[in-house]
Structure formats: C-alpha cells, structure tokens
Amino acid sequence: MTQALVLVVNAGSSSIKAAVFDGGLAERLRIEAQGIGQTGALRVGSAPVQPRALPDHQTAFSALLEALRGEGIDTGDLTAAAHRIVHGGPDLAQTCVIRPNVRAAIAAAAPLAPLHNPHHLGAIDALSALLPVLPQVAAFDTGFHRTNPDVARRYALPDRAETAALRRYGFHGISYESLVANFRETTGTGLPRRLLALHLGNGASLCAIHEGQSVATTMGFSPLSGLTMGTRAGEIDAGAVVHLVRDMGLEETQTLLHHESGLLGLSGLTADMRQLAETDSDAARFARDHFCYWITRQAGSMIAAMGGIDGIAFTGGIGENDSEVREKVLANLSWAGNIPSWVIPAAEEKHIARQTRALLKDPALS
After folding, report:
1. Is 91 one of the annotated active-site residues of the chain?
2. Which of 18, 68, 290, 355 could cross-link 73 (Cys pair, CB 3.0–4.6 Å)?
3. Which parts of the chain fold into alpha helices (H)?
4. If you average pLDDT over residues 193-200, what whole number do you get?
5. Considering the entire predicted model, what is its pTM?
6. Catalytic pick from 22, 56, 91, 141?
7. Which residues of 195-212 are buried (b: 16+ CB within 10 A; e: fewer)?
C-alpha cells in the first residue's frame, strides 16, 4: 500500500533541496544534494553531510531517491513531485500539472529568470527520466502577484515587441500566499484588510496585501530589484546599470549586481546578517542600517498602494529570527501609528504540498 507522499523540490544551479510531506501535510523527511557539478555532498535529515560524487542533476536525483529508500520511502510511495518554479512568465500563474505545454512555457520564461528556470527544467527532466510515470507539478513564485493592477505592473516604456515581456512580475509569491493561507491558524486572528508582509532572507521583498490579494510588491522584472539583499544590489538606477555594462561588460555587471552587492558588498565581509550583527565594525553596522532603511523607505510605497495599513507580518529567515531588525523596522514605521505585528514562520514547501494534493484530487484541475 502506497503512502501518498508528495516530494517538494527546489532545484538550483548546484543544489537540490527536497522535502517529503505525508497526507496530513506533516514533513516526513528533508534531504539536500549540494555541490552538484563540483565536489558533491548529500545531507539526509539531521545526519552529517556525506561526500558524494554528483556530476549532474540526474545523478543527484538518483542519489536523493536512493537516500529516500534508505529511509523507508520507496518511489512507489510518492504521489507526485512538486517543483518551486521562480518564473511563470506572462502566462503561468496557477499551480498546475507539468504537461508538455507547461514545460514549454517554463522554458520560454527562462530568459526572464536565467539564473533559475533552466535549473528547474533540468530537475523536471531528470525526474522524468528516472520516474516517467510520476506526476510532476509546478508552483510559481510570480503567480500571487498577478492581482497587481496594470498601473503597478507596467514600466513606462513604449509598446513594442522588444518591451512586451518587460513588466513587474514580483517574486516570493509562494511565501506570501502561504502567509495569507496560514494567517488565522498561526496568529489566532483574522487577516488584516491591509497587511504589509515582509519576506526577509538572503532574498528580500515587501508585499502590499489588500483583502488577501497582492496589490504591489518591491521586486519587479527580476528578483534583483527592490530591497537591499544578501548579495543582490536591490534598487538601482537603470542609468547606473547601463554605465556598468559599458565599463565592465554584461557578464561582469551581472555578477556584480547578483552576487557581489547587497550586504556583502556594503560590509566587504559577509552576506550573513547574523555574522554582521556579531561584528563590531562601522561597515557591518552600516550594512544592517542600509537593509532596515530601504525596508522602511519602500514600506511607505506599499502602504500608499493599500491606502493605509492595518498590520505587519514578518517571515523568512531574517524576518523570523532577527528581533533587532524587526524592532528597528517597526520603530521606523511608528509614524504610521500603533500597528499590530506578527511573525509568521515560512511554510512555502508545505503550501506547495497542500496545493499539489488539492490539484491531484480534482480531475478538472489535473
């Protein structure tokens, strides 16, 4: 008898993070393949990391499935594999079964998320090769923000073929959707009509949630824009980007903006907020101040988009664990009045598992 388990997958360029959820949405096991294409290693549950040759994603998935079997979970126990997909492009918003047309649309959106979608596709294809009859599902990080009005989504660019895909898509949508879904259960109170949600981690963004729907968010065309982040620059004048491309070239500019900026670039030390908090230096303090300043400055625009504010919710690694950041942000927003605030643990994978089970139970959707 199968156990009706869902395998939730988050695949990157050199890692695959996966979690197994049972029919009651309890997490059964967490497993991660690291250093794919490099030295390679496997972590199963809370056990120490074990070195393992992982030259490619298919080998990594083979190792993951072997590790599952070692923990008493056979591939026949899996009902589906569900993938977190960063970018659904202009057409994909709702969680759906991955059929050829869906895969093609994810591939078509790859130029919009070149650091993410190609690796998601690699994971989909690797699992298809290993478990061809296992249903696969896609959940999109951009989907929750489809309710943003056109005036919030469109850049002030002429209507041409070259600009057709340039819009503010927004990201961290699965996190925000999960926050909304779990709000009453977590807090014991109803969802505020105008909620400012802060997803603060190595990637960070804000979302204005009005009556349960996203009406504005700080990330835009890519996950690069908006707040100061771990290694991403966040808000930067397009003219400055053009200047960098002219002086440094496209590839070096991309590396600078995505991997060498943010908290790391400001501090010259690390992208880790915990380490910055423990470091007694002007640069470390400035990096943390910069992070909080841009949260509160851009929070003003989110509040304006909602026409006011009734509550604030923090989620993500920094949002949940760094009380000093929370206190500073709330102090900086004291001008908006005595606003109730909550900490909501991130539960993106559980939310994806819930959506997957609902999808596969409904023949009209699957």
Report:
1. no
2. 68
3. 57-70, 100-108, 117-130, 150-153, 173-187, 238-248, 250-259, 262-267, 273-277, 282-306, 316-321, 323-332, 348-361
4. 98
5. 0.93
6. 141
7. bbbbbbbbbbbbbbbbee
